[in-house]
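Handout, tutorial session.
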Amino acid sequence: MRIIDLNPTSSPSKCFCATIGIFEGVHLAHQALIEECKRIAKDQDLASCIITFNLQTSLAKVTNQIPLFDEEDKLLRLSNTGVDRLIVIDFDENFKTMSHQDFMMLLTKNQIRHLVVGFDFTYGFNGLGNVKTILEDSQGKIKATIIPKKTINDQKIGTTQIKEYLALGNIEAANQLLGFPYYIKIQGGQAPQVSLLRNGKYQVLINKAKQMITIQNGKLVDYHGENTATITFFKQLE
């Protein structure tokens, strides 16, 4: 577990209101959790905290999925939300088999006293813990605020739906659920996230310059730019 203190003026003796999740996309529903966490922290004189999981262990190594953003990008977005602390947990074998009771006790040892979670939140081995067991599993030390399902046009805001839109080439719909334009980072000429997108031609910004690119079989076939670049997607043209 890695603890990153983001607000040096926050009292180290304070307890925390936290929200927890993989936060793969930091989309609009994730942003709602974080804002409510910050609001409750302020009202109850607590510090605010985001608890998340390393994408390299929680997705790539466990389910072999490609995340919407890489770990560095995700942590940067979370660090810029204005919370006081960021806790990053490696989803290793020890954590994977941890009981729901032990997980809540781990949170209490880290001074968590209030959790803000989504309506479908589960935790612990096989997801046996849920929103109804938080108070009991924490021996009465952690209260919970449950955030209802967030939707746009009757569509649940979630990472799965965003990935489905990208696979269909519906960039506008994916961007609407994210709350910002989808982008990928090219590092060393490689960009694994390209494989999330449907084959076709796209209207993009490459390092803030308007261009069109073509994706074919998970590769950029007409990209001749720098080995390190940010490509922001707005629309599939064909």
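The second record follows below. Compare its token runs with those of the first.
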Amino acid sequence: MTNKTPHNPADESQNVEQRLGQVTGERICHKCTFILTGQTIIREPKYDLLIVRCPECGAVTPMHEYPALSRWSRRLTAAAAGALLLFVFALWMGNAGLFCGMGIAAAEGNSARLADMLNDMHMDEINSGLYPTSSDAVVPPAGIPNPDFANWLDEQSAPAILGRAGFSGLVDYAPELIAFLGLSIVLAFPWGLVWSIVLIRRGWFAIGIWTLVILGTATFFSSFALLDWIDRMQSGAPQRYFFRPTLLVLTLMLQAGSLYVTVFLGRPLVRGLVRLLVPPKLWPSLHWLWTVRGLEPPKYRP
């Protein structure tokens, strides 16, 4: 006579895998690096562990359950968040400071040569009879005010003068200005790469707002030099300071436009650099560069 163990339905229920939810964060298969986002989380009945089965290779990936943060852990988390905010603030101030410095340098470094262009334009109008002047009027050298020249200068607009001179005129009188404007655009490029990563979750509108914030901060920093130029322009030698506000605004706008464009160009460039320079085994740790924008990350096949 044999003894049969009575059938217990509870034992069968314990051997059934429980479906608990889906993976919502970024989790990769440790074997084939397949993105497991959206896969079903189950509780393995034998060891009572949370796992996810990879639909690509069938490997089991454990979903670790971490204990609640202790008081010191929360403090370290808050300190890390504060350090991150401080880092972003330092980037903000550094970027605005660079824009301000480049704008002031472009204005102050080229205004003297452009003052010579003003004197030549004034002389051309006098010689052609376009501007009435007394018979004994003398066009002043740069830095020496003259009533006739000051009156003529009051009627002029710096953007209009630069437009009349054209690119060839700027090259003749201030070739360093063209090089300086090009340099300011180039120096905005690495900042655009940095912001392309910091603002990788943001779209064109948010990036445009942040670009305006940086531009506004740089303008605020530059306002102290701008007020000094205006005061000196009113006290004497106006031609030396006539172009400085316009050159400052022009340089700031070029840098802001370059930054805005580079943020969008920087994202695919950074992804390309990851493919080119980072070993394939480390790609899974950088998959967020693709997934946060809804792109398919590269797969590493061992």
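Points raised in discussion: The two ends are 58 Å apart (CA to CA).
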